[in-house]
Amino acid sequence: MAVAQQDSSSGTSLADPHVSPAAPQSPEVASLLRKMATIPHTLNYQGSFTYQHKDNPALQSFRIIHWVEEGVEYERLQHLNGPEREVLRSGKSIGCESLGDQLLQGKISQFGANLARLDQLYKFEIRGPERVAGREATALLALPLDQFRHSSLLTIDNETGLVLKSWLVDETARPLERYQFIDLDLSPDIESLREPKARLHRAAAPQVADCNPTEVKRVERWALGWIPPGFAFVGQRQVRNHIDMLMYTDGLTTFSVFIEEASGAIPEGVAQRGATLAVMDSLSYANKNYRITVVGEIPVVTAQKIAQNIDGIQ
Q: Which residue range or ranges hold the MucB/RseB C-terminal domain (predicted)?
């Protein structure tokens, strides 16, 4: 059951003294991270990629189409296996940098010196050149300096900053999920991007984080007594049936907390699909019962500790 606990970390996560120190990022690493955070948002491209996670060894295939119209990003994700399905996203202005983008670029000075830098959270290693989807790229290993996040091996396109291949692994080096582009076209026909949608399709919710934030905001109504070092609050909204959704990022990894008033028995436990984990817990506050769900690509001990340290704000 969630423990009622409150401290000054409700809404931001500051650098933790227990995080291992690390050497500053090399210029090559910093350049790759800046490319990842900026250039892909401005591109028109389409490509196919394969995806696999630990709970299903079968390869799944997708096509992604990304384009920019009048300064706004659009994206279509098409399933190439099974029933014809498609996800449509209309995104942010290309001049809009989320907090995650700014953390990736190292542009955190306006948030104060206490917000952890990526090089305080991960050890980055350039693993050398690689060729993916016929393109020259660089493999970058991100090793966490604590037990609260997973390791990533990213292969980043040298020209565009697109992540052409990604492996997310747990503390035993077991792959949790992986994807890899098999083809990429940087000059698609824009008119063809407007072709009819798949018979089964859905529109994804637009981005909710602030555009170009100048300060780290605080959560309304709820207090998180503990969040992993280096994670910062990036947004809050209500989803179906008045469920509060709180979102956090450290620049590379994200997690969300869902808080819903509930009656009757509240299930508690852990569910996982690939790298995405869901920890369910319960909270009693102000004579009401709430269902707590923490969802993200984080270790189970991290999600459980988050869920067990939530309280309401008076």
A: 219-310
